[in-house]
Design brief:
The chain is mainly alpha-helical and about 475 residues long. The protein has one domain (about 60-470): Glycosyltransferase (Alpha/alpha barrel). The radius of gyration is 22 Å and the shape is globular. Helix content is about 50%, strand content about 5%. The strands form three sheets. A two-stranded antiparallel ribbon has the order 1-2. Strands 3-4 form a two-stranded antiparallel ribbon. Strands 5-6 form a two-stranded antiparallel ribbon. The relative contact order is 0.13. It has helices at about 40-50, 70-85, 125, 130-140, 140-160, 160-185, 205-220, 225-245, 260-265, 275, 280-290, 295-305, 320-335, 340-355, 360-375, 390-400, 410-420, 445-450, 455-470; strands at about 1-5, 10, 20-25, 30-35, 95-100, 450-455. The two termini are about 30 Å apart.
């Protein structure tokens, strides 16, 4: 893959040419040495000229179709929808509500619906799950609540409005409620999927990663009481994951719905793949910062060593191609083109803050996510596979852009934000079956979820907009 920078000719990412001079210092590469003293005045003048970021080759360059004022007006409209129609008890945000009336789906809505592939042929009763219309509506509640916490935190940074801080605090209280469900079961540190707003035996690493993301966004603006609760939660979550060996020792004997660890061991899945380990690295680093307890620092180094972090390809070593190929081999095209690559962007950006010493690896990881997912963005702003969840790509871009000042990423994010709206915040495209549908599934069986607003899409849109607004991108 070829990337362009404004001051050099195009460079292939894994080229082997020797640089003309070694760079030293700073995330942007710092100064070159040696530099002839006689050309310093000219270099100073050149450095003062405005530089327009260049886009990566193969990535569509979009021109703004809305003014910044129009985009802000849209953001306020969408947040009003969340506040007035979608927020549920305790400040939680469900994954699905009906687009027709913003109510939770019912058993009648899901009558005759498809059977979910992750049940692995089992029934809800066998897995201890509530009926499908309940667990589907609430599956990603922890995720969506934390995306909304991130959105509210960045909005408060941008506006300084006490009303926005109040929304942050209410949303954080929603997370504390979810967290307390498992603590009451003696599983302190485990994050469950709160189906119907109550405890369940289900969890998944992606719930953990999104909660980490939301907490990290809120920590710098949290009032003292919330900050103390944040420190406790991030510490206990990290301790739980250490004890559970990063989900390999789940107390309920399974990782995700009908999947067992034994099933996963027969696939190419590995807890040592970088796109998976990046779920847990931020927790360990944040727990170290929150507590100063050296056990988290020691565990971070142990886990780094276990997955050979220092041997992972870096920028200049074919890293992007390596991670794209490895991610697809481990997770298949479905995740390799969506969920895994999306977290590579926003968690990679977070790791740049927490562990700058491995910045070349985190940069490579972010570029992987950007490369994979931007190739799947359609003219209407949706993702070719996960439709409205292209907003998660926009969210990742909004936080990753700062680490690539010579590369234009945000035009893609802005295109997504401008195009997506209530009618495209969907997990299933109307009139179609998703790529992962079963061979015998019919359009009618999937129609129900094309009629539901997807909370992931909506809350990630708001998180993307408000972080980008705070950072001055639009």
């Amino acid at each position: 893959m070829i990337f362009f920078t404004p001051r050099k000719s195009p460079r292939v990412e894994d080229e082997t040419r020797r640089p003309r001079a070694r760079r030293v210092g700073g995330p942007r590469g710092g100064l070159r040495r040696p530099i002839a003293v006689g050309i310093l005045p000219a270099l100073i003048l050149l450095a003062a000229l405005p530089v327009k970021p260049a886009a990566a080759e193969g990535v569509q360059k979009y021109k703004p179709a809305m003014s910044s004022q129009q985009l802000e007006k849209k953001a306020k409209r969408l947040q009003a929808l969340v506040e007035e129609k979608i927020v549920r008890q305790h400040g939680m945000i469900p994954m699905f509500v009906r687009a027709s009336d913003y109510q939770l789906p019912t058993a009648e809505d899901y009558k005759g619906a498809y059977r979910h592939r992750h049940l692995k042929g089992k029934t809800e009763e066998e897995l201890g799950l509530p009926p499908m219309h309940v667990w589907r509506a609430w599956e990603n509640t922890a995720t969506d609540t934390e995306y909304y916490l991130a959105a509210s935190a960045y909005k408060y940074r941008a506006t300084g409005d006490p009303k926005d801080l109040a929304i942050c605090r209410r949303t954080f209280a929603g997370l504390k409620y979810i967290y307390g469900l498992t603590a009451a079961q003696g599983e302190r540190g485990r994050l469950c999927k709160p189906y119907g707003g109550v405890w369940s035996n289900q969890s998944s690493p992606d719930q953990t990663q999104c909660v980490t993301w939301g907490l990290a966004a809120y920590r710098s603006t949290a009032p003292p009481g919330d900050l103390a609760d944040y420190n406790k939660i991030i510490m206990e979550v990290a301790e739980y994951n250490i004890k559970a060996d990063y989900d390999r020792n789940d107390p309920h004997g399974h990782m995700y719905f009908g999947w067992t660890r034994e099933m996963l061991s027969k696939t190419n899945f590995s807890i040592f793949d970088l796109s998976y380990t990046v779920i847990f690295f931020p927790q360990l680093n944040l727990a170290w910062q929150a507590t100063g307890d050296s056990k988290f620092l020691s565990e971070t180094q142990r886990y780094y060593g276990a997955c050979d972090l220092d041997k992972k390809p870096r920028i200049g070593q074919g890293a992007v191609a390596h991670y794209v190929q490895r991610g697809r081999a481990a997770f298949g095209q479905e995740v390799g083109n969506a969920g895994g690559a999306q977290r590579d962007l926003y968690l990679g950006a977070l790791m740049m803050e927490l562990d700058p010493f491995h910045h070349e690896i985190w940069r490579a990881l972010m570029l992987t996510g950007f490369s994979i997912n931007t190739s799947s963005i359609l003219p209407d702003g949706t993702h070719s596979r996960h439709v409205g969840r292209s907003s998660i790509d926009a969210m990742g871009i909004a936080t990753a852009q700062r680490w690539f000042p010579d590369m234009d990423m945000t035009s893609v994010a802005r295109h997504i934000l401008e195009k997506l709206d209530v009618d495209t915040f969907r997990f299933v495209r109307p009139g179609t079956k998703p790529p992962w549908a079963g061979a015998g599934d019919t359009l009618e069986q999937w129609a129900v979820e094309s009629k539901l607003i997807d909370g992931d899409s909506l809350t990630a849109w708001l998180a993307a907009y408000w972080e980008g607004r705070w950072r001055g991108y639009w």
